[in-house]
Amino acid sequence: MSRAFPDGFLWGAATAAYQVEGAAAQDGRGPSVWDTFSHTPGMVKHGHNGDTACDQYNRYSEDTALMKKLGLGAYRFSVSWSRIMPSGRGEVNEKGIDYYRRLTEGLLEAGIQPWMTLFHWDLPQALQDDFGGWQSRETSKYFGDYCKLIASRFSDVVQNYMTINEFSCFTDSGYYPSGQVFAPGVMLDVKGRNQVRHNALLAHGLGVQAIRSVSPHVRVGIAENPVICVPVMETEEHIQAAETAFREENAHFLTTVLEGRYPDSYLRSQGKDAPDFTDDEMKTIGSPLDFVGVNLYLAKHVMADSEAPSGYRIVSYPPSYPHMHAPWIKVSPEICYWAPRFLNKIWEVKEIYITENGCATDDTVDETGRINDTDRIFYIRNHLVSAQRAVSEGIPLKGYFCWSLLDNFEWADGYTYRFGIVHVDFNTLKRTPKLSALFYSRLIAANSIL
Ligand code: GBH
What we know:
Blueprint: E1 10-14, H1 17-20, H2 33-38, H3 56-70, E2 74-78, H4 81-84, H5 94-109, E3 113-119, H6 125-131, H7 137-154, E4 160-165, H8 167-170, H9 172-175, H10 190-214, E5 219-224, E6 228-231, H11 236-249, H12 251-259, H13 264-270, H14 279-285, E7 292-295, E8 299-304, E9 312-315, H15 335-347, E10 352-357, H16 374-392, E11 397-403, E12 422-424, E13 431-433, H17 435-446
Parallel strand pairs: 1-2, 1-11, 2-3, 3-4, 4-5, 5-7, 6-8, 7-10, 10-11
Antiparallel strand pairs: 8-9, 12-13
Bound molecules: ligand GBH.
Ligand GBH is lined by residues 16, 19, 165-166, 169, 179-180, 225, 295, 297, 328, 356, 403, 410, 419.
């Protein structure tokens, strides 16, 4: 049995601006909601913040050299909107543009494709102050303007754009949190939340259109974290149940983006709290994409249940189910097979990327200075076995981005969880590739499971 990936399979690593850049007040960057949130006592573990993070803003050359050494084919990073437009609209900060020019040009010189995320949760604080952030369509509209600016300045060097990273993490978790609270950390009612969701979807659609309007030749996609429905066992009835669940459980985000309409079941279930929208907006939201990126961390296990009105039931995790260092990262490598398979089956997506996959591990530096994170190797390797199964069955999975290149600011968990294949000492900012980085680079060179 071949364990190889097809020629041209794209191997990358991912980060996000607020998690790695630091330089929060350097060169004219305006504050984002995550600056405000992380500086609000009690919101982030140990009062950590992203003021310095990995200082990639000043160390991008070193990081690019590291990526080159590892043999990465692509680097997925995000642009800090408030570095480009300090108040989210209007005035452009040329120093911010310069930074991403230097970063992308350096990557290209190193033979690494820059993959650019336009929004990874760090909304300019001014848009929060002036419009209530995602509560207003003004924010969606300004996101479109920002995307247009970026595309007009970068389409010569960046060919692949993702509008938005993970809808639920800055809509539900920011405006209607049930578990962890994320910026801006307000609590709306259900109708308010649904409108926030809608405005975020609209921003995505406006972003796609804006980019295409100035740069028809570049490619546009998204990086979404769908609820990943995995059958409890691979028999026909459970596979069918998981497929039905995949479309239903993602009704208000991915399904709506890929179908250009809210599923009737979602609108029915929300009743009077359903969002306000127009047909035109739905058309915008459903703008065709060149690829679909999915961030894959853990499964929802689904079983067929003829007594449930939907025909399926989600099975909760038993207490002893294995997980990585962060308790929410259950080990369910089948996600890298089932998510691509369902994307292709349900919506006929022709180009799929795993835009994030990885885990936190409780790394220790041994007496020789090495970090032998065999647990991360175990996690990544098993996920790639599932990804390889997908490509070997002809499912159009075209690339994989490991989360993350570097240990970094893990949002409300601060620096308590390390996701990097490269260790960062947050006192000295020294980078040390872990054993998993060596494993990943060997795997990339072989283009095969090792
Ligand atoms: C992704 O989010 C992000 O894109 C990335 O920025 C992040 O660093 C990475 O994954 C690792 O987390 O504490 O039980 O309430 C993943 C979505 C949302 C999953 C918040 C964990 C908290 C679970 N994450 N969620 S809990």
